[in-house]
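ok so i was messing around last nite and threw this chain in just to see what happens. nothing serious, just curious
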Amino acid sequence: MSVVTITKENFNSEVLQSDKPVLLDFWATWCGPCRMLSPIVDQVADERPDVKVGKVNVDEQPDLAAQFGVMSIPTLLVFKNGKLVNQSVGSRPKAGVLALLDV
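result:
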C-alpha cells in the first residue's frame, strides 16, 4: 500500500476513521534522521497491507504537529480505532518501527 500524505484537511478521514491501524511519520525535508527513517517507513507501507502509513510534513502541517506535541522529529505515532496507542521519537531500525505496531 502506498504512503498517504496527511494534512489537517484529511486527518479525520485518513487516520481517525481508518478501519486499519495507522502509522504516522512526522518529518521535514531538512531533517537528516528523517531521511534515514523514510525508506524504512516506505518498506513498512509496502510490506504491511494491514496498516495504513501516512507522512506529515511538519513544516507544511504545523497545526497537526502541535496537536500531538511533536517537538522533535522524526516522530512516529500509531493510531488504532481513532486513538493514539503508541509513539516514538527519533530514527529507529525497521524492527523497532514494526514493534511499535504490535500494541
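not much to say yet. The chain has one domain: 4-101.
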